[in-house]
Amino acid sequence: MEKTFNLSRRDDGIAVLTMDVPGESVNTLQAKFAEEITDLLKEIKADRNIKGMVVISGKKNSFIAGADIKMLDACATAEDARTLSKQGHEVFAELESLPFPIVAAIHGNCLGGGLELAMACHMRICSDSPKTMLGLPEVMLGLLPGGGGTQRLPRLVGIATALDMMLTGKQLRPKQALKNGLVHDVVPNSILLDAAIELAKGGKKKPAKRKTPLVNKILESNSFGRNIMFDQAAKQVNKKTQGNYPAPPKIIDCVKVGMSKGMVAGLDVEARHFADLVMTKESAALRSIFFATTEMKKEAGEADAKKVNKAVVLGGGLMGGGIASVTTTKAGIPARVKDINENGLSNALSYAYKLLDKKVKRRHMKSSERDATMALMTTTTEYKGVKDADIVVEAVFEDLNLKHQMVKDIERECSEDTIFASNTSSLPIGQIAEAAERPENVIGLHYFSPVEKMPLVEVIAHKKTSQQTIDTTVAFARKQGKTPIVVQDGAGFYVNRILALYMNEAASVLLEGQRIEHLDKSLVKFGFPVGPMTLLDEVGIDVGAKISPILEKELGERFEAPKAFDKLLNDGRKGRKSEKGFYLYGKTAKKGKKQVDESVYKLFSLNPTANKDPKMVAERCVVQMLNEAARCLEDGIIASPRDGDIGAIFGIGFPPFLGGPFKYMDQLGVTNLVDMLKGYQSQFGDRFAPCDLLLKMTEEKKSFY
Hints:
Elements: E1 5-9, E2 14-19, H1 34-46, E3 52-57, E4 62-64, H2 70-73, H3 78-96, E5 102-106, E6 109-111, H4 113-120, E7 123-127, E8 133-135, H5 149-157, H6 159-168, E9 171-172, H7 174-179, E10 185-187, H8 192-201, H9 214-220, H10 223-241, H11 247-261, H12 263-278, H13 281-298, E11 311-314, H14 318-329, E12 335-338, H15 342-361, H16 367-374, E13 377-380, E14 391-394, H17 400-413, E15 419-422, H18 429-433, E16 442-447, E17 456-461, H19 467-479, E18 483-488, H20 495-511, H21 516-526, H22 532-539, H23 541-555, H24 566-570, H25 599-603, H26 614-634, H27 641-652, H28 661-668, H29 670-684, H30 692-699
Parallel strand pairs: 2-3, 3-5, 4-6, 5-7, 6-8, 7-10, 11-12, 11-14, 12-13, 14-15, 15-16, 17-18
Antiparallel strand pairs: 1-2, 8-9, 16-17
Helix pairs in contact: 1-3, 3-12, 4-5, 5-6, 5-11, 6-10, 6-11, 10-11, 11-12, 14-15, 15-16, 20-26, 21-26, 26-29, 28-29, 29-30
């Protein structure tokens, strides 16, 4: 059996311990390595000739990506998970207790258990590569660092920085790691091993220097100050998570116990809390998302993909600018932006420049790199320099005639193989392709706003789209750093279709006299990043108004938006962009807290009544979304519940701790959901009628997973 850890001894008394998991592209820590590493550490401890040791990775571009999460699914009880944590504590304690200096030489990702191992070494040195990132992102999986991370990190970087890193999953770049005292030095990767050997030869285990703000120094130096920090952290966490995620309070508790009662007590609490979290439904849901996205990245389906060497973006608006930006910045593919006027083009350029310049200001990028990336983006007001485009992404207004014109223009100006990808949010792709001589090259590529932040993209195939067009478009989206889901053609596709009914129901609740802020808070409490009325203001009330009639025409009267909402546009309310919507903006808004524009109630002739139970408000809106998600699966719009869950979480911020609409329906029980829908149907009408798939599943006592 091939070994994972290999030890080489040098003549100068420095040993080099290389970790290289056989057959894997990255190193992960696995329970089965415990015996091998324990035996090796005993051998190292007994060798009097070793004067120092360097721990390094045998992988080209990563140190250790973390612990293998599959181990957690194998835990049948909390005690099993606690044993795993304790095992990690013992191995790292043995490493830490070696009588000579140990240096971790870090290049690439050093995350989770990887950073915990590095922190158990006496010193750390890392490469200056942009690939090098250090962090403890376990909170993203509903967990906490279970290998001593909650104890060692605050002792190295201070309580404030440690809490910030562990509660957000934030990762540090090399310079930030040096500034915060997490590493002792940053060097080019070419001399990383040599520099680590020199540090080990120094013969002393020295702490790294860190720059701590004065206020943090004062607060961290006494128990009273530390308690203030823990209380503040707890308040901020609760505000952000609405109490829906159990991991953050437990992280705070681990640090609090460790800093007041010592390392041994802290490690004990860490193992106990870690074990409890492994068993929570929230962590199970978050881990399922992690596995689903990893699986999607590995899946084939790009077998027939053509290489994209050049892209064209039609339209220099907010979406066009964002699409061009991720094409040049993330994918490194030249993009030519075409717009009818220079104003649109300068907007697209300035949009991309601001995003890159932010990185320069934060010292994440050199100004020369920014300029080189900007040089990949060119502009034109005519169809010039577009002939050799492999893909054209159209991001113009939601108007079928305009999109037909764009298809004809591209077929005239580009090559026979050029893909025409429409960033429509609601128009069926088959209807757009009706104007095409080569419909096999036409596809939908639906991005979400803001493009640079939203991870999802829907790739929409109509009946005549070729497999090569699908594969090439999926590969292109992945290069842009997106998570693509392939959905079949139909009005609103998947994400906007399930969102529309949720938004319509929220509008109905509002028109029954519910206060705007209470409606929004109810859905934020449920777990959405923002409430429906805030979302409508951000997306644009006019955009919603354009999509609704299309969905109603194609999918039936259950999509009819409340007629009273027409009054909003007649009153010039488009949301944030017109500084007039459900909330106050611009000069009318006071600084700080977001305020409702009370004049909306007069517009609807409403006198808001007492607040309804927030759980009932949220449930009524959410069950509409769940019913429609099941209907999309039934109609073949999405290929699987997994794609539906990923689409809803990454596309509209469906609460990740619930695992997505389908995981949540399983959690509720399909029979219970059908009962809820029937209850609302008798109260509010047939828009709540449960779809056939849910009724069939109830009869057959089936679940989605």
